[in-house]
Specification:
537 residues; four-stranded antiparallel beta sheet
Length: 537
């Protein structure tokens, strides 16, 4: 299926996008230098494969542990203020890390602790960063913006590791960590400069526990996002073997030093940049599932080649190929996740995507590191290649929503509900009235009942996605063809949030259902409060 042509450079017309893109490029370059320095420093402190692989594990694990909470925070508070605080804090921690290395006080345990702490900061920054992208550019440029962010990320992979390898050999191991601290300060300053328009919401802010629950509920009923998560897990659990064992591949299998390690990481980044420019042509010829299948097969070839051959020039070539395949898969999955999410839950949904991505990377790193300790590095890479092919085959039926984005903007097509209160005091407590039951009455001809009930079952999933529970559709006993839909919301405030979250896509579904209604008036909607005065035991 051929895709529509878009201008890949259009997002740079936005000054906000350009400034934050450049700051992110410097920040990710510092992070890549930090990763090379941490990985290589650990090989100096310990040669045990499991311990070395733990660097990759503790880098990815915080995303799995904290990203959902971070996504909820990013959807509730100001994303700009959150990013300024997180990036500034990470700059301070990175400086302390560099000082300990300079004083030769670093140990394997301390190294893992600092990498883990910085990983927590990355976990709180990542969902907010990704969720701000639609705020910077028009919706029509979203795919181009995601691709350009991938270019920046992988330019940093090409530049950072190569520079880090040279600096480690010529100046010292501490330099990459100093640069990383500076890069955190730079991006904190960029977010301080950015002044997004304020989005006003008359409703009170969600509390974090409730926001987390709402995010999980949305993902539970989002078929397109769940398919993206499944594809992500199937790829990352096996592909993580290459990242986790790369320092040992260089040092043990290839007999190289930090310079070669940096060169290979740089080759991966160069391959990713090349992959970004090849991706539009691939999208014109192949569907997203086929792109993922092709890239996964090529990554399996990379793993097998790395496990069989010990040639440094060949390792560089395979690293370039790995980088291209990596960006094809990441870009495809990221766009799929973005298009599946409305703005109100975007950071939480992306956080869950990152949890699955980095959680599978972390789990995979532990598995492959442990396996390499028993059977060796080369056999482990061959096993990982086999499991990647198996995972690609088993996940082949999971669809990816990479077509035209659905209308997920708030439609506000529900009529304003009427609430009658007896006093000002009662008015102050309206939002706390609990539970709330909504009923909607439809009259449907017998010939349309099957289609009506099919659409209503789908609508029920949508209601639950936004927080409704106890949803059902019933037919009136003495009036065949008269149906009552009912559902509960936890409170009146939750019902008002439900109303805000209904999208244009949901309106289209409701219009299809209403078209089957044969009554002389539109479907009758009624709202019921739980009583403040009386509760049955």
């Amino acid at each position: 299926m051929a895709g529509t042509k878009t201008n890949p450079w259009a997002p740079f017309k936005s000054k906000d996008f350009t400034v934050l893109w450049l700051a992110s490029l410097l920040s990710t370059t510092g992070s890549r230098m930090h990763e090379v320095g941490a990985g290589w420093l650990m090989t100096s402190l310990s040669t045990d494969p499991f311990t070395v692989a733990l660097v990759q594990t503790v880098t990815a694990l915080p995303i799995f542990l904290f990203a959902l909470t971070a996504g909820a925070v990013a959807d509730v508070v100001s994303r700009r203020k959150l990013l300024i605080f997180v990036e500034s804090t990470m700059a301070i921690i990175a400086i302390l890390f560099a000082v300990l290395i300079f004083l030769d006080m670093m140990t394997p345990v301390l190294l893992l602790i600092f990498v883990f702490i910085l990983g927590i900061g990355a976990a709180f920054a990542a969902p907010a960063k990704q969720a701000t992208v639609p705020q910077l550019i028009p919706k029509s440029d979203l795919q181009s913006a995601i691709a350009l962010n991938s270019v920046g990320f992988n330019l940093s992979r090409a530049i950072g590791p190569a520079v880090a390898g040279v600096l480690i050999l010529t100046v010292g191991i501490v330099v990459p960590f100093i640069f990383n601290a500076i890069s955190f300060a730079i991006i904190a300053a960029a977010y301080f400069w950015w002044c997004p328009g304020r989005v006003t919401n008359p409703l009170p802010k969600e509390k974090i526990p409730g926001a987390v629950k709402a995010g999980l509920r949305y993902v539970r009923y989002s078929e397109s996002l769940r398919a993206t998560l499944g594809r992500s897990f199937a790829f990352c659990i096996s592909a993580s073997a290459f990242w986790a064992l790369l320092p040992l591949i260089v040092k043990v299998e290839l007999g190289g030093d930090a310079s070669l390690f940096g060169l290979l990481i740089g080759a991966i980044g160069s391959g990713a940049v090349l992959g970004v420019f090849l991706l539009p042509k691939l999208k014109q010829k192949f569907t997203p599932p086929k792109i993922i299948a092709l890239a996964s097969i090529l990554v399996s070839v990379v793993l097998m080649t790395s496990g069989i051959f010990t040639s440094q020039p060949l390792a560089i070539v395979t690293a370039v190929l790995f980088g291209s395949c990596w960006i094809w898969i990441l870009s495809t999955l990221n766009v799929s996740a973005q298009l599946a999410l409305p703005d109100w839950v975007r950071a939480r949904g992306l956080a869950i995507y990152l949890m699955v991505f980095f959680g599978s990377m972390s789990l995979g790193s532990m598995i492959w590191g442990s396996l390499a300790s028993y059977i060796g590095i080369s056999p482990t890479l061959l096993v990982a290649a086999g499991t990647l092919l198996l995972g690609t085959y088993l996940s082949r039926q999971l669809p990816l929503n990479q077509g035209k984005a659905a209308d997920l903007a708030p439609s506000m097509h529900w009529a304003d509900p009427t609430v009658v209160v007896d006093s000002e005091e009662e008015k102050d407590f309206v939002n706390e009235r609990s539970p709330v039951m909504v009923t909607i009455e439809y009259i449907v001809d017998k010939k349309n009942e099957e289609k009506f009930l099919y659409l209503m079952c789908y609508l029920g999933k949508v209601r639950k996605q936004y927080g409704a529970y106890n949803w059902d559709i019933l037919e009136e006993a003495d009036r065949p063809g008269t149906f009552i839909e009912y559902f509960h919301d936890v409170s009146w405030l939750d019902h008002l949030r439900h109303r805000q979250r209904v999208t244009g896509k949901d309106r289209e579904l409701q219009e299809q259902i209403n078209a089957l209604h044969t009554g002389s008036e539109p479907p009758k909607t009624r709202h019921f409060f739980g009583s403040l005065i009386y509760r049955c035991n």
